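Tutorial, part two.
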Amino acid sequence: TRARRSVRDRLKSGRRLAQSSRPAASMRGRMGVGAFLAVLLTALLQLPLCAAKVHVVQVRLGNNATASRWQFVGKFGFGLGTGKYQMRIRELAPGRLIEAGKLEIEAYLDEDWPAAETVPVPCHRRAYSKRVRPASVGVGGGWGPWHKGGITQAVRPHVWYFALAACGAEFLGGALELEVEFQAMQDSGSHFSIESEWSQQSG
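Running the prediction step on this input gives:
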């Protein structure tokens, strides 16, 4: 009888010990996952939004009565060397643009951008643009071809501003609804704008 009682006591003690150790192990697991998520969230919050590899924006070009024929698309700070950029366009409401080659991409240097913004007639702002090139739109709502360019800088970094204009375009309806995909890259291959690289180095 005493032997049986001793065995039962040892079994009960073992069960209590196992039950008491489970919450501790579970707590350690939860603490590990929580710490990992906290570190991941902190890292994501520190990433600048403007440093995205791909920038997609919707623009509305009109006949000046319904909307401006000129719209800002995006900007990117290029460092020394030869950086690259590319842009493609598609219609959100296909069939309104009569001549697909009448849109233009305008690139402005940061030194000229403030003066360009003060010009009251948007289509006259291209006088301050360093580069103007025709742009094609995709057919049937699909993406058009990539329009590629390069920016070479040897003295100091500059921020370049990009706009899309429909100053010579004809289209049906009151406005032209477009989606623009813009990508830029440093000479080093980095997709971070120069001001984002500075903030990372200072951090």
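Residues 20-31, 36-52 have pLDDT under 50 and may be disordered. In part three we will examine how such features are distributed along the chain.
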